[in-house]
């Protein structure tokens, strides 16, 4: 008999904000003036003046309208100044690869590997071990490079199929749009290997015919209405970090395809410090969200590996998972309220209560819908005060089995730190190869000493040992206590503490590894067997498909749950001598996925299904399950306006 | 007849590997050294080495067994400790205790026994190489055909010989009755299972867990007989599924990447239990296995059981068998440690796989020609053809059957390991023994035979001319037969008398005439001398072609020469291979001065051989006798 209900009050800026208190509990909070609402108030006033100049149709809640408009210099809406993602993404990002244009791995004149740019801890450093590792692991060497097509050749892009009536009405709304080839190509792909490979070779298939940049929820409502009216296909686009072919334009689509880029909807609309929630526009990318919240002393704690580029709306649409989910939860735990625009209208709950017993949770139709039902425009998320103290750590285990057993025990005792990840031996070696050139003789001496201690004194086999990286967060005392508890458990499984630096490098690796490529994610319960079988299957498939050098086939356990864990598999191979490496890659990946399913893994832990994994949906959720999803789609979007054909 | 059936270029189907006789080396080198050789087999790459006792602990502590123990203790109202005790006792009764020293003991004694019992044990070495690869990559299950008690000892013996990992073998409990031997077998890798334990949950759990743990950990290849028991009739028995189900389980549940199933076909020319089986099938109960019984059975040591062919087939990957047949994700909905009855789908999959494997065993069996002859004989017998069959007809039927069966995919055996020379010598052995029977009566026929040959070659019927021929031959063969020196005339007279007496000849002053009914006698008598004539001819011819030989070189060289000519079909009589004949011929030529021994160094020159050869060649040794009729005389 515990239901929750919200008590509503209005705040000074006439916006509706919800206060929550749990029935019968003492956890009630109120909305008396906080710093942020003062700032908000001032901002709102200034914004409404500017809004008047813009003369845009006002409907519904004026507060929201005010917030969505341009407010240069406004304290809250800092994103327009320090916006990470400009409309023309190609200005700072690679058009045919991962991430920033200025950050990449290359061999310098001396033939040493180097990571360029200034953005990462590794940036500008020379990585002496990488080249040797590349050569010894899969026979990749300098003599065999495949140059990418340097710039986009606009003539290779098909001219847009435009729906003139739609375009005409769109123009009248004043929402920015473009049918420039570069803009369109940029939004035609995610980061699956085959997509990037095609771009590098200058092959361009079906791309969106038009890109629109709505500025706020209401813009989206208008665009969706127009699309329904003129039967135009809409494909929402957030951060573009998909690895499930979700952004690929269905080649059979004959209607005009409009890419709806949410990147300009990137404001935090309000922060409710009493209830610890923030209402945010869905186009905001992870790093901006965290930075802006940090300025107010808060965080969401949602840190997927792609957080530099991926957007809030994308997280919701794919059921994303963050590395620190042990403390903060996955996206489904973080989301309190969602607003989504569908062809049938706007869906949102009437309250911001933390839990409802009102039939199946409609949020769960939205989360994971992958842009097939509508566009997520605004989300209320839980926030937390920024942790007082953060500490990295790492533990070396004699072998992977011991490491897994330790993770299991940590999960059983429910004392997992914010993040705990276990890398297998291959990945440990890779991490080692990515170690930058050491600055002093002393550091290198220490490294040697450590290595000696672990391999000789403790008798760890360098070809079997594996490393767990840890991240603790919280107040200082608790963190230290927690740390001790985890290290004590690790010791029972033969683990040796291996220092903060190793841990930190492990996490940095997460962001940098994307520049080298290829990630798959899965969940499972039988860690050891699945890891062995899937890795073996990858190696065998590569061999069968004629890959000349043994592939890199490696995995890491990135999340622990009470009832299972999440494992990432990485694989890479040298495609020299293969006529169609992408096809080989796809075959191997396909085989690996079948192996995962056969071994009791799930189809996807957090990347979603997209088009890449569609074929396994029926077997994963049963025919009835498919029917349920189908009927939702048929009701919400009978004309398949959101026609990216993901999921079903 | 056998020769005819087996001699054909189709004998070794191309898909089959070649066989290598492992006993040959045993016959030529020390068994003791072999038994003590350095034994370092290739092991499974994922192996975590563990002792026999640790293995038992792993079984007793497994979640699977733990679950059943709790279940059983609830059902029977016992404490879990009691049930665990029962489980430990079952395991104790069952478990193997593989020990290298025992294996070495067996390697030594079996070498002795095998050499006495069998002519050869032929193994396809390529198959063993494949097996080695398979053992390295995945857990391996060996599935030999089962025709004899010998089977599993033989398997281990071969694997030891080739330095391959020794298997653990599922054996029937009845062996345990044999006190010492039972324990010995245990120490050579056998583990014992009850013949029936249908309802006993605990037994099944201990047993299946024990097998799975050994397999998964790559402790050793697991060996068992798909047919469950020895086939008494040499027909394959329908496969039993229990164990196959158990060994496939770790793959289906994703506990290992793959499992290799290796069908092994063991073909006996004659099983040790041959007579025993027949009696058993007729209702005479089989003797209980006992150690003393085994010693009584040692009389079999004095018999010849021919050869054994062991063919290690292509390893079959369970993964590929299950590919697109089994949806493995179904196993993930129930925790792995809870025993579940296999679904219909899985049962039919295991069943199909089992039949495929037994078929693979059958296909690689090596068949001897008598197998086909047995068809013909049995059908004749059933047709109440009591008079027996003419050899020609019999041969004709057998050859027809061979061709027919070849069209049906049968690959008859396997002279492939034997070179034509060896084959020829083998035949010659039989023929020379036969010759030694014939020779006992030769003295009766020799004089008439000399006369008959003389008549046969003489240009006319003139008595003088025939006498000259007789004298020449008598002179020629006086080292070969007992012909009293200087008694040429008496011998001629005697021969004439005897032939006239049997009505073969009529003799007057000047002429010798052959009577109508004498032809048969004369033909027979000429044939008596023919092999010798041919032998002497070939020796002469050999000497014509050779320049200078030492006495020591003579026999091997002339033998080689003769073999060559026999194989090309230019010589008819295999008995000319007899070194006795060759020596006599040489002695005769020396005596006649055609060949000269040179003093000073050992050797001889031969100046006048050609002329002797010419004279001898006057005697055509023809009427080529078809080989099969020689066999017929046997």
Automatic annotation (TrEMBL), chain A:
One cellular-component annotation, GO: peroxisome
Binding site for FAD: 236-242, 318-321, 370-376
Enzyme class, UniProt record, top EC level: transferase
GO biological process, alphabetically ordered: ether lipid biosynthetic process
Pathway: Glycerolipid metabolism; ether lipid biosynthesis; Lipid metabolism
Important for enzyme activity (site feature) positions: 421
Domain of life per record: Eukaryota
Subunit record text: Homodimer.
Protein name: Alkylglycerone-phosphate synthase
Encoding gene, per UniProt annotation: AGPS
TrEMBL record, chain B:
Domain of life, per lineage: Eukaryota
InterPro entries: GPAT/DHAPAT, GPAT/DHAPAT_C, GPAT/DHAPAT_LPLAT, Plipid/glycerol_acylTrfase
Annotated pathway: Phospholipid metabolism
Predominant location: membrane
Keywords recorded for this protein, A-Z: Acyltransferase, Membrane, Transferase
Subcellular location: Membrane
GO biological process: ether lipid biosynthetic process; fatty acid metabolic process; phospholipid biosynthetic process; triglyceride biosynthetic process
Any one GO MF annotation of this record: glycerone-phosphate O-acyltransferase activity
Record protein name field: Phospholipid/glycerol acyltransferase domain-containing protein
Gene: GNPAT
